[in-house]
Design a protein that fits this description.
heterodimer; A: 278 residues; alpha+beta; 7 helices; 13 strands; B: 178 residues; 5 helices
């Protein structure tokens, strides 16, 4: 019997489904998986004053800050992706987002719009140092990471089939593939994906002026009416790669291949294109 | 090691211009009784409390706001409150339950059901048609088979606001009444 639960976390609805376990075990597994999501939420929140990110933002430039192993791992992945995409993905664009009213203004710190991922120094033993006043926003990658950790919990509990969907960042595994409908804004002709043991994440550039997507290289809002879904082995990569593909299709294509990922891109003319590994 | 189950894209046929549409999506996670058991496993009784005073309800949640409030108890002692409320977003209607412990602190939040308020059968039919011949299943089965949605992130701001409203309600009407 399938057990499904949904709770509000990470600013969205997080849904978990488990099949192939006795009810009590399924519920215990789901509780543990939600605890993982809650931990990522707490540690990597941009506006929560107690989060690892807020502690980093408040620290003096050049001061060494100890963070949770999970925060360190996500920062590491974010910086690696920033490096390989030459800044098309950049976890330090928060000042642009704050300026546009898309992120709340942190009370106790300042963020420089000229800072980049290169100003984040990852040191051994879970330590981090900022070389510049930067605001780090892991909104484009932490949700995917939370999904991966939650799914790992359900897998460890022995579920035959399980899925975790955090407002569209979805990872699953199971005996049979499942069909997931993609929602690319108002497009009525959105594709479907048959998802096996994999993850899919979707980003849509809204038509309104308050579009939540900014090109990290220029600080400008991305062209509207475009949308992308990325299929990858894990949700953190899928989540982050959606931003790279939207910022730069050519570089996105190269990085998709490197991560054995594919993307389904909808351009402004409502055409669908598959990019990435065959 | 078993071979991982493969994934594939299923693209719509051609470039059919379909009117803006969402296949209406709805999921029920828990019934009220199931949520009560899940959130207050120890309770042996859930007493329905009278409806919220109309003036206070209007002040907190607007006209017509009427959350269902229960007191969870065990052996005559109060364990806390179990409240069912609904919030309406731009495109969705969410019913959720909030469990407060005996001190009024949030114990748990569960989504009971989620339904999209968009979508029409006519548009659904147009959407289905595009997939005819593309899959082993027939087109009608396709949307029944859909297990989830990946799209622009749904905001749960309304749920957060709803919880704050219920905490106000507890502060002003439940705590003192007890």
């Amino acid at each position: 019997m399938e057990i499904a639960r949904a709770r509000p976390w990470l600013g969205t609805l997080v849904e978990m489904r488990v099949d192939g376990l006795a009810e009590a075990r399924a519920i215990t597994a789901i509780e543990a998986a939600f605890a993982e999501v809650a931990a990522v939420h707490r540690l990597m929140s941009f506006h929560d004053a107690a989060s690892d990110l807020s502690r980093l933002h408040r620290a003096r430039v050049g001061a060494v800050v100890h963070v949770d192993a999970r925060t360190w791992a996500v920062l590491d992945a974010a910086c690696a992706l920033a490096e390989e995409s030459d800044g098309r993905f950049d976890p330090t664009i928060a000042p642009h987002l704050v300026e546009r009213g898309l992120l709340p203004m942190p009370a106790a710190s300042r963020g420089s719009a000229s800072a980049s991922w290169r100003d984040i120094e990852l040191l051994p033993r879970r330590r981090v140092r900022l070389r510049e006043r930067a605001w780090i926003d892991l909104g484009g990658i932490a949700k995917g990471h939370a999904v991966d950790r939650a799914l790992a919990c359900l897998r460890a509990a022995g579920a035959a089939t399980a899925s975790v969907n955090a407002g569209g960042d979805l990872a699953r595994y199971g005996i049979e593939p499942e069909r997931i409908a993609l929602r690319h804004g108002d497009a009525g002709d959105a594709p479907v994906i048959e998802l096996g043991d994999a993850a899919v994440a979707t980003s849509v550039v809204a038509t309104r002026a308050r579009a939540a997507h900014v090109n990290p290289r220029s600080g400008r809002a991305l062209r509207a009416r475009r949308a992308v879904s990325v299929l990858a082995a894990n949700c953190m990569i899928a989540d982050a790669l959606t931003k790279v593909v939207l910022a730069d299709t050519r570089i996105g294509e190269r990085i998709l291949r490197r991560h054995r990922a594919t993307a389904c891109l909808r351009d402004g003319e409502r055409r669908w294109r598959i990019l990435g590994a065959a | 090691m078993t071979r991982p189950v493969r994934s594939r894209w299923i693209l719509p046929l051609g470039l059919v211009a379909v009117p803006a549409f969402h296949a209406a999506w709805a999921t029920q996670y828990l019934s009220v009784a199931e949520a009560q058991r899940a959130m207050f496993a120890d309770a042996d009784a859930f007493h329905v409390l009278p409806p919220v005073d109309a003036a206070l309800a209007t002040e907190l949640g607007g006209a017509g706001w009427s959350p269902q409030v229960f007191e969870a108890g065990k052996g005559g002692a109060r364990l806390g409150w179990f409240i069912v409320d609904r919030v309406i977003g731009k495109t969705e209607l969410i019913t959720y339950a909030l469990a407060l412990d005996a001190t009024g602190a949030v114990k748990a939040i569960e989504i009971l059901d989620y339904r999209e308020t968009h979508g029409s059968e006519v548009r659904l039919a147009a959407w289905r048609k595009q997939f005819v011949g593309k899959t082993a299943h027939d087109a009608v089965e396709l949307d029944r088979d859909i297990k989830g949605i990946s799209g622009a992130t749904l905001s749960t701001r309304h749920v957060t606001e709803g919880v704050h409203r219920l905490l106000q309600l507890h502060e002003r009407a439940l705590r003192v009444a007890g």
